[in-house]
Amino acid sequence: MVWAIVILSVVSIALLSYLLALKHQLRNMTRGLERTNHADYDRLLLIQLFDKDANDLANTINHTIDNQRRLKIDAEQAELALKQSVSDIAHDLRTPMAVIKGDLQLILRDTDLSPKSRSYAEICLEKTGQLKTMTDEFFELAVLESDRAEVTLEKVDMTRLLMQFIAENEGVITSAGLEPDISFPPKTVFVQADEGLVRRMLGNLLGNVLKYSRKSFMLKLSENGSVSISNPVHSGDISAERLFERTYRGDKARGGGGAGLGLYIVRLLAEKQGGEVSADVSGNMLTITIKFRT
Questions:
Q1: Residues contacting residue 269 through CB under 8 Å, at least 6 positions apart
Q2: What proportion of the chain, given as a percentage, has pLDDT over 70?
């Protein structure tokens, strides 16, 4: 009887030790799986288990992780190839589009052109301009998303830059019948930014205003380095939360001749400079604000 109790105790202790050791190994496996969830972690489960079934489970998990890694690499390579293709196609289209636009402009100078032919040529010229805008947007987007766009952050005089931008585009603004309401703080505002990228952002924002604003728009520079552009819109057509999504269009906010990428590109450019961009619709006024680092 005593020997039976002793043997049973030894077996129980051995079984308990086995279970504790197995539990410890399973915890190690769990920690290993958690580490594989991190994007920068590139290792399989390096765990030696004394239980054959647990070892088989670890091997199966490793095979699954390896397959997922290969699928991720293939997907990333396919995405890069697609972006490169879009960039190449958009780049190749720019030259013929410029030629077509130039030829149409020459045709319209012909004084012998019939009214009907002139009307057709004017429509073709307008659509060619829209197609060129879309092509330029796709090319710029492909460059930005492929991380080929160089960013050089430096101390930029935002007050001077905005004044220059308004002066350079005064003719376009006046031709559109717009009256800008400009507000600058008394002190010069400096931000950390890439001046070339800022100009591209302002160009996209101004293009948005020229398409959809009537009579006036407001440009405001704040002391904290934020730039806001406001213009009247039909608020029922706009989802401020989706305004910076790729190809999102509100009937008034994102229509027109482009591909609906202008504000999405503004967001990408802001993020590349460590800035933030936001939109707010209050009444019938849309305000887009870019916050730069100071």
A1: 144, 197, 198, 200, 201
A2: 72
Provide CB contacts within 8 A for 270, sequence distance 6+.
201, 276, 277, 290, 292
Which tokens is 137 given? Answer: 């947007």
> From CA 116, how far away is CA 24, in angstroms rounded?
85
151: Cβ contacts below 8 Å, ≥ 6 apart: 194, 197, 272, 273
Are 235 and 191 within 8 A, CB to CB? Answer: no
Q: Which of 38-42, 89-93, 143-147, 201-205 has the lowest mean pLDDT?
A: 38-42
Amino acid identity, residue 158?
M
Q: Compute CA distances 204 → 5, 249, 267, 268, whole Å.
A: 85, 15, 11, 12
Q: In 131-268, at which residue ranges do the beta strands (DSSP E only) sit?
A: 154-157, 179-183, 190-193, 216-221, 226-232
pLDDT in tens, 13-70: 767 776 777 677 777 767 766 766 665 555 565 555 566 666 777 777 777 777 777 8
Amino acid (1-letter code) at residue 230: S
Please tell me the distance from the alpha carbon of residue 280 to that of residue 191, in angstroms, as a whole number. 23
Tens digit of each residue's pLDDT (9 = 90 or more) over 174-200: 888 888 889 999 999 999 999 988 998
Residue type present at position 285: M
Coil vs helix vs strand at 276? strand
Neighbours of 24 (CB within 10 A): 10
Burial 73-99 (b: 16+ CB within 10 A, else e): eeeeeeeeeebeebbeebeebeeebee
Is pTM beyond 0.85 here?
no
Apex 284 CA angle, 281 and 288, nearest 5: 40
